[in-house]
Write a structure and sequence with these properties.
alpha/beta; Rossmann fold; four-stranded antiparallel beta sheet
Length: 334
């Protein structure tokens, strides 16, 4: 049985509208204008137990709204969803004790008290026995290198330190489903890498199902074999990362390196390869060319230049997704 099943899930907000100025404000008291905003519009997908899925989309695509519905914080306007056999928005106690929602831009820890005191509160809320609590806290402290942070008031922690403590607190009850909404936002590269490693380890050890949203494609590439992409509240793609690139990437990147003494100064690489020069130095360059023309472009470079190394790769996943979202007609054109 799938850990998460979503069918026709939708969320519509009714938003008031009025013109600026005092007169318009007074008029709106008697004649209120509204419009409907479809934050999520008929989304369908399944996530199997133990799967780590990247949930991608631009700002305003409906990612956070979807995760809030699956976490039980919002009631949908349409459709159904089941997580671990529960309907999330009924907020069954057994369900809330088996899931966790971590939002990188929200603070769940108590601001003015040490981190450990908040963890003790979580222990009481989730009814974690003293032996299990001590064992889990020790494991999480070791994995995330919390150390003395547990005794520091939250307001005195850096963003990276607070994020580590937020994640540890959300996992004290060992949830079977973990919703991560931008868990590495604002963190430095080293801290992002550490958080990614921890999530991968937690998934491997517990078999927990993970849904991850992130604007950092390194997070997605490191953790997720499958991605679900939404745009304007609608499902755009559901499949492997490699399949996403194959479906939407119209270009290839040709990276070429030439021998010493055969520099590329004065060489018309764009004309020779039939593409756009992305990077260039005296002895190396990267050219973006149409996918269908990549073999011929590589052959011309090998024939005309003193090439010692040439590679053909797909463009970075973030650029692929940006190109799809930048399409004037949106996902329909893809």
């Amino acid at each position: 049985m799938a850990a998460i099943t979503v069918e026709g899930l939708g969320k519509t907000y009714v938003v008031p509208e009025r013109d600026g100025g005092v007169r318009a404000a007074l008029a709106s008291l008697a004649h209120r204008r509204t419009r409907e905003v479809h934050a999520v519009a008929g989304v369908d997908f399944r996530v199997e137990a133990g799967e780590v899925v990247g949930f991608l989309g631009p700002n305003g695509a409906g990612k956070t709204t979807t995760l809030k519905m699956l976490a039980g914080l919002l009631h949908p306007s349409a459709g159904t969803a089941e997580v671990l056999g529960f309907t999330p928005w009924r907020r069954d106690r057994d369900y809330l004790g088996r899931m966790a929602l971590v939002m990188g831009n929200r603070n769940q820890l108590q601001w003015d008290i040490p981190v450990l005191d908040t963890y003790r509160l979580y222990q009481a809320i989730f009814r974690i026995g003293p032996v299990d609590f001590s064992r889990r806290l020790a494991e999480l402290t070791d994995l995330l290198e919390l150390g003395d942070l547990l005794r520091v008031p939250v307001r005195n922690l850096s963003l990276g330190e607070r994020m580590k403590c937020e994640i540890a607190g959300s996992l004290l009850h060992y949830p079977q489903v973990l919703f991560l909404d931008e868990p590495t936002i604002g963190l430095d590269v080293a801290m992002q890498r550490r958080i990614r490693a921890f999530v991968a380890d937690y998934n491997a050890r517990t078999g927990a199902c993970v849904m991850l949203t992130s604007h950092y494609m390194a997070d997605v590439e490191a953790l997720c074999r499958r991605v679900v992409v939404i745009h304007r509240g609608r499902l755009l793609f559901d499949g492997d990362l490699s399949a996403l690139v194959a479906r939407f990437a119209a270009d290839k990147l040709l990276s070429v390196e030439v021998a010493e003494g055969h520099d590329l100064e004065g060489v018309d690489l764009a004309g020779l390869a039939g593409g756009e020069v992305v990077e260039r130095s005296a002895t190396s360059a990267t050219v973006r060319v149409p996918k269908v023309g990549a073999p011929a472009a590589a052959a011309r470079l090998l024939d005309r230049l003193a090439v010692i190394d040439l590679t053909i790769t797909d463009p970075p996943i973030e650029r692929v997704i940006e190109d799809v979202f930048a399409s004037p007609a949106g996902p329909e054109s893809a």
